[in-house]
Structure formats: structure tokens, C-alpha cells
Design a protein that fits this description.
Oligomer: single chain
Number of helices: 9
Number of strands: 24
Largest sheet: 10 strands, antiparallel
Distance between the termini: 42 Å
Amino acid sequence: MRFAIGAVVAALCLIAASSTSSARGPYGTINVGNWKGGAYTNDQSGAFTHCAAGATYGSGIHFLVTIDDKGGWGLGFAHENWTLTTGQAFPIVLTFDGQTPFNVHGIPIADKLVRVPMPINSALIAQFRKAKAMTAFTQGQLFQFKLDQTAQLLPTLANCVAKVKQFGIAAAGDFSVAVAATKSAAAAPGSASAKPEKMTSQTGTGFLVSTGGHLVTNQHVVDGCVGDIQGSLTGEAPVKLRLVSSDETNELALLQAPGTFKDIAVIKDKAIHSGDSVVAIGYPFHGLLTSDFTVTTGIVSSLSGILNDTRFLQISAAVQPGNSGGPLLASSGEVVGVVAAKLNALKFVKATGNIPENINFAIKTGALRDFLDNSVVSYQTSDSKAELKTADIARNARAFTLLISCKAKAPTESAKN
């Protein structure tokens, strides 16, 4: 039986009151992007207990944020496939914006519902307040959440509690709170205090998958692009690319170049194995190193990424900023992945005290093919047994691997690789 998100939010009355009674509500409205909720009361006593808002994700998980009548914050996770034991520790690894993970123990308060307390003075809520993205790893599954609206959601929830405590549940209405404008946003255009935004060149790699000019890259390669996105094969003039679709969850984007193309990448039909040889093609540090693409070799180190994320391969082939979105090729020359990122060495050192070497990742072809199928793009597959020399693989890739570039706003924090 599929959960209704309203029922899940209502169940969070148990977070605020040590009672088995059910919740009544919502009273008033919280409507921030996909977050929906309001104020809730104890069904038996009628007393106000908490405010909550939740959102449902395509993975089947429901994610909620709550604040009780005493100002205590909490997160709630619910999944229709879970069968939990009330009161038993439920380990969850929460990671915000790729920072150091938090190992927390959720508290099952129903057979499908887990509560994670967030003390007001904790590092957990501090990271949650400012994060743009969060991952939750539990029971062998990785769930991803966008948090770009928490800057408005958290004040709205706090306002909900304040208003209900001041005016009573009967006066509940719209609890929305406008996000305060920043100084830079408030400055009038052309005023002395308004500073022009800095622009930077953003580059990555992509590869053709259809004769109609469709090409694949990472979503972050084109995220934030201002103006035209350009693509060029080695030695050829750049052309304007059209953004067709993107998948932030799986880090994929589909672009299209004008015209038709004879040479395209072929996706390997069979799964690759640990220890298999791979070749990564891309344009790292374009303009600082060679203007041609680079070729690096290695092996498949693991069939899963960070925290056992099975959408990714771990590879030893060296990649650098600019390799993102490039093809990862088998010894037969077929695509076995999309180069995605390298492990952030500085963050890894801080977390473990060790320096990582050649820990890089690529998106598996399963996610790639699903993305192309959903975008209604035809592509070619093969399962060739023939092995090619690295030089031949690189020569063939030259015809379908493109440098992708655009102008983007200068990032305020370290960019992805």
C-alpha cells in the first residue's frame, strides 16, 4: 500500500509527543517548492504539538522536516518498502554537499518511519541549514535530496510554531516567510555598491551517441552556463549546442549539435567486470595543458562508488578537471561509462589522514541507457570481443569526443571535477 505524504507528516506527531495518539492536521499551510505541510495537534487532547513539511521523491522515499512546540528540530524519513522495529537503532549516513559524513542513528517511530533528532546547537543542523544537497545512505540504498529551498523552509517552519503559540491553532493561516534579499541583490543596478558578477570559462567533455548530433556529458558541466554552450571536435570550429534534457540525480545531460554525424560512440551491451582494462578520453585543464584531448588508461577497481553507490564504477584511470562527461571505453573501444569525478583529495585527507591515489568514478551504462531511453534518443550497442590497441581506441574516439565550453558565473566554492 503506497503512503500518502499527508499521512506520513501526520504520523510525525509521535516525534513531538511521547504518546501513541495520532496527529490531527495540517492546520494552515506550508507551501515552499515541493515541501507541503502545516501545524499539527494531538488528536486526543487537541494541544498543538509541532509544525512539519514533507516532500515525496521518485525513489519512493518521503523526507520531512519538523519543529516541535519547544523548538526542537528533527528530520523524518519514510519508505513504503521498509519494515522497521519501533525503538531499534536505525543507522543512517548523512552527507551534505559532499562534506564529511554524519553517522547518525535514526529512531523508528513506526514500521516505515524514522526520526533523526537535530539539536539546535549541533553541527548536523548547521550543515543542514546551509547545504544545497544531501545524501542519505541506509540499508544498502543511497537516497539523494535537493535542499536549495531550505533557506525559506526553515524560517517558515519556525514562523509556524511562533504564530500558533501566539494566536492559537484556530488562527492558523499561510506560514510562508519571504527570504531576505542579500546586499548584492538589494543594490540597485548601476549603483556604486553593485559589483558586476565575475564570469569564468567552464569546460568539460562530451561524446556523440546518435547520428542526429545528440551527445552526452555530465550535468555539472553545463550547470550554471550563461549564454551559448559550445562544442567542438579536435581541430574543428566550435558549434552551438542545444541543451535537450538533464538528470541532476544521475549527473547526466543531453545536448544536441546541428547537422548529422557519421561517427558515434557505441555503448557496450554487456556489463564490465572488476579488473577489466579501461581508457578515459577527455579535455582536462583545457588551455593550460594541450588543446588536444588526453588519453589515460587503467582498470575497473570496483563496481560501486562512494558508500556502495551502484550507479558508479570506481576506476584507476587518471582524470582531472575537464575530463567530466568524457567516455570511458573498454579495450574493445565501446563505452562502458561516463567519467564523472575524482575523489577530492583534500577532503579525504581531512576525513581519514590518508592521501588517495587514482580513486576516480564513472557513471555506469545502465544509468546512461535509461537516461537516453527516457529522452527518446536512439543509440547503438555492441558486445565486441576484439581487443584494440590504446592508440586505435583513441583514434576512433577522436571522431565522437567533443570539448564542451561555456561562460558561467564564478563559483563561490570549489567546483566539481
